[in-house]
Amino acid sequence: MAHMTQIPPTIPPQAIFEAQYSASRAQIDVPLSLRRDRLGRLRTLIETHADTLSEAVAADFGVRAKALTEVADLFVLRAAIGQLHRQLPRWMKPRRVATPLYLMPARGHVQRQPLGVVGVIGPWNYPLQLTFGPAAAALAAGNRVMLKPSELTPHTSALMASLVQQVFAADEFSVVLGGADVAQAFAQLPFDHLFFTGSTAVGRLVATAAAANLTPTTLELGGKSPCVIDASCDLGDAAIKIAHGKLFNAGQTCIAPDYVMIPRGQEAAFEAAYTAAVARLFPTIAGNPDYAAIVSDRHLARLQALLDEARTSGARVVDVSPTAPAIQATSRQMNPTLVFNPQADTRLMNEELFGPILPVLSYDNLDDAITTINRRPRPLALYWFGRDTAARDRLLNNTVSGGVTVNDTLMHVAHEGLPFGGVGESGWGAYHGETGFLRFTQQKPVLVQSRWAMGNLFYPPYGPRFERVMGLIKRWL
Ligand code: NAD
After folding, report:
1. Which of 119, 377, 380, 437 could pair with 194 as two cysteines, CB 3.0-4.6 Å apart?
2. What is the CATH number of domain 13-221+429-442?
3. Which residue, judged by its Cα, is nearest atom 41 of ligand 1?
4. CATH superfamily to which 226-418 belongs
């Protein structure tokens, strides 16, 4: 059990912002060496305190395997910071742009500059990856960063604040602690960019607060991500990958498959395959250190209420955990369930689940599946399992989602070369890799005029000379 970290003496967020703002305007040209130095300090912080950080996350959840935090938070961070460090010299360089004929011989390029002060607001589910990750990209792009982690992971957030304070000056990178009231005031600071990861409901509040300052935002939100099983798929293989994606962190993953769509008639086969997959991954639930707890009593009660409502409204709810009892109340480890064909108007089918409950909807043909997906807000992720590439392409070409993994779940988030983000109600703006670097970068266009420029041919007084030149130029376009 991690001990509560000494919370560093608090500097008011407004004062940190002002210090960062002045510093960002005093040094706009942030050299490669300083950016790499900041990334290096963050990397060392993570490496040196990996164990304590994992213990803090476990203390916040009650049950959360060190290996889970290692793979989902620390490994991903190491990979991201490593790539930023390696690619920075290339990504920082100005980009030459070809000059159109009518502007010859001028030259154009795009200069890549820091935005200034970036605010990051994070959620509790992957409390290290989703806070230090965007912060690393913003630091690499030469910005100052203020980070507000979640109040639902108090051990982790306090430890992050203390560690960051040990290796960064407050005007470089600073962690602000507090609940929704602090978060609300934080979102009102006039950042140069505000990066938010959390629920769609709070995302709306963040966008509204930021709009008052004309602060651009990135919103990494949630939603109901569908998983479509095609008749051509190997059900055993799909079931284990779906079970892994659904039960990773007990379903508390933004891109977890929220519900499954299966060709009508394959329900029993899927139930058997999913049950076997769960038993293979988690031979027991209650007391199993590999199976994460639901983060709080309130979150567990909500999930129970969703199941109760589905049951009362007539859906078939199947507990697929290999062993009884249903829930170990003290550990908040909730049994995985399947819910067959719940009513469309239930909370189960209208709220993001964020837990180990998997609704299974039967469909008759691909068009039905596409219509069901397109009737809902655009999801953060979409999964498809099968071998029929024509069916796959038809689904991908006719649905819009934040991202896609084919024949697996979750994995597109781990590819640093792929932009990661939502669309519509699942958010806007993307990050990871160069996309993340550019998210926090002003791409400033610069045109350098030549002494041989012929722009004066277009100057007034307009007359026959102007007409002749215009006539010639129009032929080149
Ligand atoms: P949340 O929206 O409840 O809280 C997120 C953060 O917002 C917290 O730090 C909180 O203090 C802060 N906050 C609360 N009220 C605020 C306000 N009025 N103004 C500004 N900030 C405020 O989300 P959560 O419960 O921590 O996380 C779960 C949600 O996050 C799920 O919906 C999940 O899908 C989503 N999520 C998305 C991604 C992604 O990358 N797209 C990743 C993880 C989680």
Report:
1. 119
2. 3.40.605.10
3. 220
4. Aldehyde Dehydrogenase; Chain A, domain 2 (3.40.309.10)
